[in-house]
């Protein structure tokens, strides 16, 4: 099947298929006599694997490692679990970072009157170093907790 058909079959754009090939996630596709890429069912299966790993947030380097483990029938499941656990730990760190960002923005927006005046605590807060913003978010949470 050609690249367009392969893209449709696995839910990945043709551009991404070419990218995965360029970074070595998938081997170079065979070519037809006219020079078009030709994909097999095995290629489609691998592309679906990659798409699912991307859907779960794995980076290209992690997917490369997972593909290596997937192809290695003598692998240890502990090796696969280690990669997955590292990714879970990274996701939890990213979630916490997002929570802290949301808390900081919540604290800044709570201080903003949102009226016609030019004073804006949100813009003022963006001028402050990070640790001052985090302190502001903590104070806002403390105030909110006292109110409830």
Automatic annotation (TrEMBL):
<feature type="domain" description="HTH merR-type">
    <location>
        <begin position="1"/>
        <end position="69"/>
    </location>
</feature>
<dbReference type="InterPro" id="IPR009061">
    <property type="entry name" value="DNA-bd_dom_put_sf"/>
</dbReference>
<keyword id="KW-0175">Coiled coil</keyword>
<dbReference type="InterPro" id="IPR011789">
    <property type="entry name" value="CueR"/>
</dbReference>
<feature type="coiled-coil region">
    <location>
        <begin position="81"/>
        <end position="108"/>
    </location>
</feature>
<keyword id="KW-0805">Transcription regulation</keyword>
<keyword id="KW-0963">Cytoplasm</keyword>
<dbReference type="Pfam" id="PF00376">
    <property type="entry name" value="MerR"/>
</dbReference>
<dbReference type="InterPro" id="IPR047057">
    <property type="entry name" value="MerR_fam"/>
</dbReference>
<keyword id="KW-0804">Transcription</keyword>
<dbReference type="InterPro" id="IPR000551">
    <property type="entry name" value="MerR-type_HTH_dom"/>
</dbReference>
<dbReference type="InterPro" id="IPR015358">
    <property type="entry name" value="Tscrpt_reg_MerR_DNA-bd"/>
</dbReference>
<keyword id="KW-0238">DNA-binding</keyword>
<dbReference type="Pfam" id="PF09278">
    <property type="entry name" value="MerR-DNA-bind"/>
</dbReference>
<protein>
    <submittedName>
        <fullName>Cu(I)-responsive transcriptional regulator</fullName>
    </submittedName>
</protein>
């Amino acid at each position: 099947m050609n690249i367009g058909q392969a893209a449709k079959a696995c839910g990945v754009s043709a551009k991404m298929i070419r990218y995965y090939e360029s970074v070595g996630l998938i081997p170079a596709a065979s070519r037809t006599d006219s020079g078009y890429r030709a994909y097999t069912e095995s290629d489609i299966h691998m592309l679906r694997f990659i798409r699912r790993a991307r859907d779960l947030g794995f980076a290209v380097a992690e997917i490369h490692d997972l593909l290596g483990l997937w192809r290695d029938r003598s692998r240890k499941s502990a090796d696969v679990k280690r990669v997955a656990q590292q990714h879970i730990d990274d996701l939890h760190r990213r979630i916490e970072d997002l929570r802290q960002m949301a808390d900081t923005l919540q604290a800044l927006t709570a201080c903003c009157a949102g009226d016609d005046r030019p004073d804006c605590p949100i813009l003022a807060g963006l001028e402050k170093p990070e640790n001052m913003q985090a302190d502001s978010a903590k104070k806002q949470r403390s105030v909110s907790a006292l109110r409830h």
